[in-house]
Amino acid sequence: MAETTGFCRDCMTPATAGERRCLQCGSPRLVRHAELEALPIAHIDCDAFYASVEKRDNPDLRDRPVIVGGGRRGVVSTCCYIARINGVRSAMPMFKALKACPEAVVVKPEMEKYARVGREVRDMMRALTPLVEPLSIDEAFLDLTGTERLHKDTPARVLARFATAVEREIGITVSVGLSYCKFLAKVASDFEKPRGFSVIGRAEALTFLRDQPVTLIWGVGKAFAATLESDGIRTIGQLQQMDENTLMRRYGMMGKRLFRLSRGEDERAVHIDHEAKSVSAETTFNHDYGTAAELLPILRTLSEKVANRLKASDTAGRTVVLKLKDTEFRIRTRNRQLPDRTQLADRIFRVAAPMLDHELDGTKYRLLGVGVSDLASDAMADPMDLVDTGATRRAKAEEAMDAVRAKFGTKALETGYTFGTGSRGKPQRDQEN
Q: Would you name any one GO CC term (predicted)?
């Protein structure tokens, strides 16, 4: 068995396997793991972020249950851990939250302040590694591979010092998950909140996952979990006993994700944050067009281009944006927000096409564009559609088309929308935002 290495998170003194407290400072906050010095992928999550910022700015709230929310929606945006102990949860209607915790202090959210603090934390992350991939205002993945020479220390110890620095300099706390892949790093960061530091190594991954509920896997929410349960699948261990083809036949693209993540296989890289707001493609025509027959093939081709970029960068977006420019150079933009992020050409096109149809009022257009905004990791993109069962089949077909095109070129396969359309189905100029 590999020797277990560790250290005290408060004073960084090395710790051996048998100690319950640090021999130097007496702290119980020891972290030990056989693979501790070899794991480079981290997920950092700010603890009860909005509420923590409010407590930092108002010390009178420090020991009180705090709920951030209210306003027009009348729901809980987030709450501190004291409120959570009393049964308050994010997205809970405010009247239910106050019934569960009547002594709670309700604070109206200040998003600009939270964004400012989030940027401060992210700047500190970038001092550790250039490979920082934000998931939201208060959490991000980091890849510290190869940073030992820069910091003259292991990723684990660097991250422990980072957590202490955030607490000291910014006044909030973070939890750290450390592993060999993004999936398990994110799982680990939830283990011991707040102020957690948890590790999942490669050697223990299969055993650890075996008894976990299927809801631990990204994209398995209540609805899909109910579908799996109706098929007799409740634990990840049951998924580990199934082959990939069987899972894909049953659940389409989600089956592929179930197969891989249930085995701790997640090869997605941590991508640098370029602060990209959207991914889009547009084309200016040689001739003006104004009919569905003329514009739909172009929209389909542009949707495929956007989808390819999203897939290549392991990102997905929640808002589909349509752009049109008429012969007088007036621009029309329309958008629709989706319940889940997507990176599929089929879904982008099916959302954009009705918006385009609504603008076909006899106007001639010289430019058409489509894009996806509100970008984030593709970890939970395109879950299985329990209403539109055909969506799963189309997603599986799109994956097969992607594989063929990757091998034989983009013209190896075309959809019915673009086949035989010539240059109208091929953008002449495009741009990415």
A: cytosol
Q: Parallel, antiparallel, or unpaired: how do β-strands 278-289 and 365-377 relate? A: antiparallel
Token pair 């220390």 is found at 153
Please answer whether residues 163 and 197 qualify as being in contact, where contact means their C-beta atoms are separated by less than 8 angstroms. yes
pTM summary value: 0.67
8 Å CB contact between 325 and 394 = no
Q: Which of 54, 139, 282, 398 is catalytic?
A: 139
Q: Is 139 a catalytic residue?
A: yes
Is 138 labelled as part of a ligand binding site?
A: yes
Burial class (CB in 10 A: 0-12, 13-18, 19+), 189: buried
| Residue 53 pLDDT class (50, 70, 90 cuts) | very high
Q: Determine if residue 430 is labeled as part of a ligand binding site.
A: no
| pLDDT tens by residue, 297-333 | 999 999 999 998 888 877 889 999 999 999 888 899 9
Domains and CATH numbers, the chain: 1-31 (no CATH), 32-46+115-205 (3.30.70.270), 49-112 (3.40.1170.60), 211-262 (1.10.150.20), 278-425 (3.30.1490.100)
